[in-house]
Amino acid sequence: MPWPSRKRDKGAAADKKEPDAKIAKTEEETQDKEEEEKSTKPPAGSSKSGWKNWKKKESDSGGEESKMKYCHWLLKSEPESRLEKGVDVKFSIDDLKAQPNQTTFWDGVRNYEARNFLRAMKLGQQAFFYHSNCKEPGIVGIVKIVKEAYPDHTQFDQKDPHYDSSSRKENPKWSMVDVQFVRMTKRFIPLSEIKALHLAHKADGGPLKNMMLFTRQRLSIQPLTQEEFDFVLGLEEEKPH
User: Fold this and answer.
1) Is 30's pLDDT higher than 80?
2) Separation between Cα atoms, residue 206 and residue 176, nearest integer Å
3) How far is 190 from 145, CA to CA, in rounded Å?
4) In three state form, how does the secondary structure of 115-153 look?
5) Bigger pLDDT: 107 or 40?
6) DSSP states of 21-78 as a string?
7) CB 77 within 8 A of CB 131
8) What predicted TM-score, i.e. pTM, was given to this entire model?
9) I need a surface site. Which of 6, 69, 80, 169 has the fewest CB within 10 A?
């Protein structure tokens, strides 16, 4: 039986160990509507230039699609119990491992920008599983996309904390993907360590200088460039900084 919806992104909760992320747990409906109007379906591929290339206009590249695209992801989920409308939204990487075939759907996203990222995911792409809104947030494992975006059924379930009465089955507003456990990272990679590197890279132009984990903290679905993914993955081989 599927777990209750827990990966909500109607304003992802700020990580408790991230003092700069003074973010409300929910976003206003007006902000969501503005995001819906402004958002465009992001590409999925590889990139070296970060967020600024995400919405690069065709005119900037002579009508050709930018070759700088994202092909990896970071997915936030809460490993500690928290009730939302009477439902425990807890879901850790161990909960994923306990699912049949270590696979299930990634539901409950209610932010238009994050939804568009979900819709851009391609079969086989890998993502970091990130424990969020807990005593020590950080990366704990790797998952892969095993089914591309399709309608999120929880938007139509009145008993689900992420029910959306404005969504219609003939034109669903929200999507989800299926993910499968790949492996645990060789060690826990804490937010504090990644943040220290991000700050250093902002100064010296390193690969984490534009990492969305710090520039778009609200989002529970975040794209990563190949360079960002490879650098963070390489941290598992090193002693904690």
Assistant:
1) no
2) 32
3) 23
4) HHHHHHCCCCCEEEEEECCCCCCEEEEEEEEEEEEEECH
5) 107
6) ----SS--HHHHHHHHHH------S--SS-GGGTT--GGGGTTSPPS----EEEEEE-
7) yes
8) 0.78
9) 169
The angle at the Cα of 233, spanning 220 to 180, to the nearest 5 degrees, equals: 55
State how far the Cα of 83 lies from the Cα of 32, in Å rounded to an integer.
23
d(CA 113, CA 19): 24
The CA distance from 43 to 40, in Å, is 9
Section 221-235 average pLDDT: 97
pLDDT band (50, 70, 90) for residue 1:
very low
| Crossing angle for the helix pair 29-38 and 112-120, to the nearest 10 degrees | 40
Assign domain 72-236 to its CATH architecture.
Roll (3.10)
Helix (H, G, I), strand (E, B) or coil at 174: coil
Which residues are within 8 A (CB) of 1 and not within 5 positions of it... i.e. 6 or more apart? none
Q: Where are the domains of the chain?
A: 72-236
For residue range 210-224, list pLDDT tens digits in order.
999 999 998 999 999
